[in-house]
Specification:
With 331 residues, the protein is α/β, with parallel strands linked by helices. Helices cover 46% and strands 19% of the residues. Strands 1, 2, 3, 4, 5, 6, 7, 8, 9, 10 and 11 form an 11-stranded mixed β-sheet that branches.
């Protein structure tokens, strides 16, 4: 029997971690992305199933994937003949996963050494958690580090924590048990990563490792936030409003005040359209709170956010090396 056949049979009896990568026109980033997965060490007897879903890229992504497959023969590439959209591409790759654990990774992001080992260790020690995420460094298009992803200080969280402050998790850091993959696969499309996290929170607590073990590229011109920001805001709002009633009454009120406060601030900064009255009333209904009370809670939240932003700005002014920019703040 050939050694390759022996290795294949041996791998068939070993546990597996499925790494689900999605890409579209990310030729300049996809090699670093895939190579960072194969560079992972310290996952014991687990083998990696690495799958890339290419959503009919029109740049050099197919050629780069072919070169990657020559270096990594076990790489599985699913190329769609037509563009089916990010969410459907994502689901098509997850459906191919056969591991005991499933990891997500966007084609323009990457992992740092020790990422999988730290997460597997966490899940082994915290068997009641159904998933675990990590912090991430934030880099620009040329790979220069410009900040950290979040300032969250929590080791595990549930739906209350997630709806109160909104999405603070880097999607490319997500790893979950395959036993809860149905929560992801049953999520209606289109969706954003916040929707998936809320779906997973319905199954159990999610762990968080406050170490930058992934790399996130910010402010890319081809990102969905740049190309279709209104759709992202709509999907975020609908996911949040659907999840708020599932939280505790206290978290419902905090979530509603936080959403309105951020929308007001973003509107004043010109980062998003101003909050519409109907959205405000929908938020009141979702949180089961009177408009006057939500107005008071929002004013308190705006004051708190303004104070936090001011303090951080002053700290960065005088000790910039010790106070990095936070892209998804958890005030």
């Amino acid at each position: 029997m050939k050694s390759a056949d022996v290795d294949a049979q041996s791998n068939a009896h070993r546990s597996c971690i499925s790494v689900c990568i999605v890409t579209f026109n990310q030729a300049q980033f996809i090699e670093q992305c895939v190579d960072s997965v194969y560079a992972q060490r310290g996952v014991g007897d687990y083998v990696l199933q690495v799958i890339v879903g290419d959503d009919c890229s029109t740049d050099e992504t197919p050629e780069r994937l072919a070169a990657l497959k020559s270096r990594h023969p076990d790489l599985e590439v699913l190329r769609h003949k037509t563009n089916i959209g990010g969410a459907r591409n994502h689901l098509s790759v997850i459906e191919m996963a056969r591991g005991e654990f499933v990891a997500h990774l966007d084609g323009d992001d990457f992992w740092l050494p020790g990422k999988l080992a730290a997460q597997m260790g966490f899940l082994q020690e915290n068997r009641s958690c159904i998933a675990v995420c990590t912090n991430a460094i934030v880099v620009n298009a040329v790979g220069r580090e410009v900040g950290v992803f979040t300032n969250a200080e929590v080791s595990r969280f549930g739906i209350d924590y997630l709806v109160e402050g909104g999405n603070f998790i880097n999607h490319s850091s997500l790893l979950y048990r395959a036993s809860v993959a149905h929560a992801v696969l049953s999520t209606p499309t289109p969706y954003i990563d916040f929707t998936l996290l809320l779906s997973l929170c319905k199954e159990g607590d999610i762990g968080f490792i406050d170490q930058p073990l992934a790399g996130y590229r910010a402010n890319l011109q081809q990102s969905v936030q740049k190309t279709d920001g209104e759709s992202v805001r709509t999907l975020y709002r609908e996911a949040l409003f659907a999840a708020i009633p599932l939280a505790s009454p206290r978290s419902q009120r905090r979530a509603a005040a936080n959403y309105v406060a951020y929308r007001l601030l973003f509107g004043l900064q010109g980062k998003a359209p101003h909050l519409e009255f109907e959205q405000f009333m929908r938020c009141c209904r979702a949180a089961n709170v009177r408009p006057i009370l939500l107005g008071v809670l929002t004013a308190m939240r705006v004051a708190g956010l303004a104070w936090a932003v001011s303090v951080n700005a002053i700290r960065r002014r005088f000790i910039p090396q010790r106070v990095p920019v936070v892209y998804h703040a958890r005030y």
